[in-house]
Amino acid sequence: MRSPAELNDRLRARGLKLTPQRRCILGVLYGNDAHPTAESVHAAASAKLPGISLKTVYQTLHELVEMGELDTIDLGTGAVRFDPNIESAHQHVVCTGCGVVHDLEVTVDRLGLVAVDHQGFTVERIEVVVRGRCPGCAAATGPAAVGPAATAPGGSAG
């Protein structure tokens, strides 16, 4: 994500005012690789600027998405997240314990997927989400069962 100063210039160029709320939101997002939800951005912004509205946070986040400065991702965790890493093609890994999200550098072509026209759909984007447990959750719960027996109904692990 660009620096807050660079984003200030881009917002001004779009005719948007540089309000204290927008500056605060940009500060919360800059360097934030946690893939925050609008609610978590709001909580962090509220700590710095009490009284900032959730509506303002949503509006600013969507303006940044429209400008191509953020990407939205839905990882099936119950809330849309905002990804400031728009420079590199990447996927995501999600902890099934605590919900933390990290970027995952993997090329889709290595997975053998091909973007083709299928039943009238032209594939525009392929998203891969890897799920597992982060080191903290894995340490707290012990080793996970791995392999088909762990996921197959009626399967046995031994």
Mean pLDDT, nearest integer?
82
Strand content: 5-15%
| Major sheet strand order | 4-3-7
Q: What is the CATH H-level superfamily of the largest domain? A: Winged helix-like DNA-binding domain superfamily/Winged helix DNA-binding domain
Number of strands: 7
Overview of the structural elements:
With 158 residues, this protein is of the alpha+beta class. The protein folds into two domains: 70 residues, Arc Repressor Mutant, subunit A (Orthogonal Bundle), CATH 1.10.10.10; 54 residues, Ferric-uptake regulator, C-terminal dimerisarion domain (Dna Ligase, domain 1). Helices cover 35% and strands 15% of the residues. The chain contains six helices and seven strands; from the N terminus they run H-H-H-H-E-E-E-E-E-E-E-H-H. Strands 4-3-7 form a three-stranded mixed beta sheet, with no helix packed on it. Strand 3 and strand 4 form a beta hairpin. It starts with a helix and ends in a 7-residue tail after the last helix. The C terminus is likely disordered.
